[in-house]
């Protein structure tokens, strides 16, 4: 049986949930793909663990100091890296160094943090192209809500004319809690933090940056654009007051923080801001920490997906969906070269 060695960098809520789910699914990988998927290394900012024979769930509680940093990936012999560190789109975050190292070495990468992809997307894509590595990012691009899958697979061949998305769970949760429970902004934010889906720096959620990051990933990795944060008009929800919420409610309107991409005269325009919807619009029904995406295309009309799951499991599952796609692609490779010898 073939072996596939996986390493995880960034071992907080999502990294740990991904490790646990991967270990639970090992039998499935053996049965469906005939592959022995081993978790061979994990690391946080100051400590890690590695074992080429595969780590077991019971070992993950205690990491060893010092075993961290991009070099640990090569040392572990992993051929797939799952990156789940903090998101920092201004610097690329710690993920950038891990991804550069892994992609340059030809290791397939599953990215859950957004920072490096937004900061250095074209460079990372080029590293992947040059080394033949696969670069997957479902976890970064709204995770449990299918977004890139729709653009890359479900609407393949269509021209996507517009994308509108409730892409950030925290802001949707806040707006909803203020509107339906009369909670104050700070109290609602504390609930989102307790739920494990707010960013470490919650301004990234409330000021609209997380939505803008996800929108850029959809534009650049889903629609082949090359936009930067400078190209996005970004408005958050931090200035929303109880009075404004009341006034919208009296008009029968539901506020959502949405990211929008629109083709205008052949150019893709990107913006993030509050939009209000009448109750008859499906976006008005996307409650709590749910997310949604509406795509308009030339030939398939309008497609809407709504989704969420319990975090951090849902994001772990989105990342491991990418792993399944990598297993499928790896399985298809020998068949391809047999049918079409070079
Ligand atoms: N929590 C959620 O619902 C979702 C989170 N994400 C993204 O997943 C990522 C992780 O999120 P959480 O696990 O919730 O955050 P977290 O803060 O619990 O975990 C991040 C981990 O990265 C570690 N880290 C920091 N610097 C590092 C370095 N140089 N090397 C290795 N590890 C380092 C930290 O010690 C921490 O344990 C973030 O980028 C977030 O934006 C994406 C989708 C949903
Ligand atoms: N903070 C984000 C979670 C990860 O992307 C959100 O609220 O959606």
From TrEMBL:
Q: EC number(s) in its UniProt entry?
A: 1.1.1.3
Give the matching Pfam families. Homoserine_dh (PF00742), NAD_binding_3 (PF03447)
User: Where do transmembrane segments lie in this chain?
Assistant: none
Q: Which InterPro entries match?
A: Asp/hSer_DH_NAD-bd, HDH_cat, HDH_short, NAD(P)-bd_dom_sf
Keyword annotations from UniProtKB, A to Z: Amino-acid biosynthesis, Methionine biosynthesis, Oxidoreductase, Threonine biosynthesis
Q: Does the keyword Oxidoreductase apply?
A: yes
Q: In which pathway does it act?
A: Amino-acid biosynthesis; L-threonine biosynthesis; L-threonine from L-aspartate: step 3/5; Amino-acid biosynthesis; L-methionine biosynthesis via de novo pathway; L-homoserine from L-aspartate: step 3/3
Instruction: List the protein's name.
Output: Homoserine dehydrogenase
Q: What is the native source organism of this protein?
A: Ectopseudomonas hydrolytica
């Amino acid at each position: 049986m073939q072996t596939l060695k996986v390493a995880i960098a960034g071992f907080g809520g999502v990294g740990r949930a991904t490790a646990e789910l991967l270990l639970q699914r090992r039998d499935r990988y053996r049965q469906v793909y005939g592959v022995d998927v081993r978790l061979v290394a994990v690391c946080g900012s100051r400590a890690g663990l590695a074992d080429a024979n595969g780590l077991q769930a019971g070992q993950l509680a205690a990491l060893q100091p010092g075993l961290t940093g991009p070099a640990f990936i090569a040392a572990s012999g992993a051929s797939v890296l799952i990156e789940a560190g903090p998101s920092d789109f201004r610097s690329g975050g710690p993920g950038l160094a891990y991804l550069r190292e892994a992609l340059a070495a030809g290791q397939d990468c599953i990215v859950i943090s957004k920072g490096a992809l937004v900061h250095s997307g074209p460079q990372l894509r080029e590293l992947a192209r040059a080394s033949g590595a696969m670069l997957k990012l479902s976890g970064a691009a709204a995770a449990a809500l299918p977004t890139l899958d729709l653009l890359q697979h479900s609407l393949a061949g269509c021209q996507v004319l517009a994308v509108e998305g409730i892409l950030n769970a925290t802001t949707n949760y806040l707006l909803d809690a203020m509107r339906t429970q009369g909670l104050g902004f700070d109290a609602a934010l504390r609930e989102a933090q307790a739920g494990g889906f707010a960013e470490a720096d919650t301004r990234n959620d409330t000021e609209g940056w997380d939505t803008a990051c996800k929108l850029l990933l959809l534009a650049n990795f889903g629609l082949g654009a090359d936009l930067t944060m400078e190209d996005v008009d970004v408005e958050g929800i931090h200035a929303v007051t109880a009075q404004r919420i009341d006034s919208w409610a009296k008009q029968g309107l539901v506020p959502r923080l949405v990211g929008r991409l629109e083709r205008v005269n052949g150019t893709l325009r990107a913006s993030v801001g509050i939009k209000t919807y009448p109750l008859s619009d499906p976006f008005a029904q996307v409650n709590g920490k749910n997310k949604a995406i509406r795509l308009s295309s030339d030939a398939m009309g309008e497609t809407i997906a709504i989704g969420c799951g319990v975090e951090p499991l849902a994001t772990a599952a989105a990342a491991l969906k990418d792993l399944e796609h990598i297993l499928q692609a790896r399985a298809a490779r020998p068949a391809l070269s047999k049918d079409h010898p070079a």
